[in-house]
Amino acid sequence: MTATTVTAPLTPARRLGPTAGLRHTLTLAWRSLVQIKHNPMELLDLSIQPVMFVLLFTYVFGGAISGSPGDYLTFALPGIIVQNAFFATMTTGFGLNNDLTKGVFDRLRALPIARWAPLAGRILADTVKQAWSVSLLVGVGMILGFRLENGLLGLLGAFALLLAFSLAASWISVLVGVLVNEPEKVQIFGFMVIFPLTFTSNAFVPTETMPGWLQSWVEVNPVTILADALRGLLVGGPVAAPVVQSLLWAGVLAAIFAPLAVRGLRRRV
Q1: Looking at residue 16, what is its pLDDT?
Q2: Residue 222 falls within a domain, yes or no?
Q3: Less crowded by CB within 10 Å, the N or C end of the chain?
Q4: pLDDT for the residue 5
């Protein structure tokens, strides 16, 4: 007597709707945030380092550059916030590469969840970390004497602009994260690119104090434009032009790097 095995026909996987995908994204974003409990150094990087920049630049260079630490804080804090936001985008690529190299990303994608949820969850969690870091910097700045001349509305506008720009710029980090084979290389890229980019801007010193040949680059540097937009929103000054230019830069970065990052991720997994 021969046993016969009957195999049930495979049914195609049910297509997930946007509501389910959003729920999966929020769950995975919460997973990334909860990991801070097991790796508190990640939160310290987003907290201690930016506060150290504020204190050191204000009290070491403030008197020499602006005549007093208070005047320099008013000028430099928006620039420090922008610099910190650029560095914080690297955590997206670092975390993504870490998940890829350890096989976590493959296990997540093997689950019955939206295909885009793992990446979207990572980006959303890092956006929340950005908001925490900006809140901390503004709070420390106000303790040191920084004042919001445009009130709550200006602060909310600065928050929205910075998070939107960071979201677009994070695609650069995602692309680097899927191209390199070690998380540490994402950090190396950040230091090699972001440090020169932020220090050849007006984030820390006025443009007119630099050599003429450098001023041409400083004026079109996206860090300069975003820093000017935040200064206008927080302490007064031109707002419309730098905000529009910042949004244009954000759109260009997203349009270039998002498709490349998604294509690289598909090849990697």
Answers
A1: 64
A2: yes
A3: N
A4: 44
Element (H or E) spanning 8, and its range? none
- Is 6 part of any domain? no
Mean pLDDT in order along the chain per 10 residues (269 residues):
44 59 84 77 76 90 88 93 90 85 78 81 87 90 91 92 93 90 84 89 92 93 96 92 96 94 83
Question: Long-range CB contacts (< 8 A, 24+ apart) of 44-52?
Answer: 45/91, 46/88, 46/91, 46/129, 46/132, 46/133, 46/136, 47/132, 47/133, 47/136, 49/84, 49/87, 50/80, 50/81, 50/84, 50/133, 50/136, 50/137, 51/136, 51/137, 51/140
Residue appearing with tokens 């907290």: 47
Angle at alpha carbon of residue 100, lines to 97 and 106, rounded to 5°? 155
pLDDT given for residue 117 in this prediction: 82
Q: What is the DSSP secondary structure assignment for residue 4, as one 8-state letter?
A: -
Domain count, the chain: 1
Q: What is the DSSP code string of 139-172?
A: HHHHHHT---TTHHHHHHHHHHHHHHHHHHHHHH
Q: Whole domain around residue 87: which residue ranges?
A: 21-268
Q: What is the C-alpha to C-alpha distance for residues 84 and 22, in angstroms, rounded to an integer? A: 28
Angle, nearest 10°, between helix axes 183-199 and 69-101?
A: 160
Rounded Cα gap, residues 248 and 156, in angstroms = 20
The tokens describing 205, both together, are 């010193």
Residue 156's pLDDT is 94
Give phi and psi for 211, each to the nearest 5: -60, 150
